[in-house]
Amino acid sequence: KVFSNPASLDRRGVLTLGPYHSHKCLRCPANMCKAKILGEYLAERAREDVEFQHVLYVGDGANDFCPAGTLTAADVAFPRKGYPMHRLIQESQEKQPGAFQAAVVPWESAVEVARYLQELLRRKC
């Protein structure tokens, strides 16, 4: 499922973007809080009797830190090395050890993420 700002062409053929939703999160841009989206999605799936053992969140931007901060100890955050999400997680871990609950697996290439996922699946079998 893809979550994105709504887009449309105006009368002049110019692409315009609207906000995804309104929210009160002070860490996120006004148009979208990814933590709110993730929480709503997980709640929607729970109402459909779908429960997830793990949430695996891959990101790189500062706006990916907010949803990553809502992950539990059963989950995994994949921040791209050297990008804002990675830096913010490191700062959070230094300031408040243990406050960031998810396992953190920094990556430079999607191959690293794929290897981790393959290993996770191998352990489950």
UniProtKB/TrEMBL annotation:
InterPro entries, A to Z: HAD-like_sf (IPR036412), HAD_sf (IPR023214), Pase_PHOSPHO-typ (IPR016965)
Name of the protein in its database record: PHOP1 phosphatase
One term of GO molecular function: phosphatase activity
Gene Ontology BP terms: bone mineralization involved in bone maturation
Pfam families: Put_Phosphatase
Organism listed in the record: Nesospiza acunhae
Organism ancestry: Eukaryota, Metazoa, Chordata, Craniata, Vertebrata
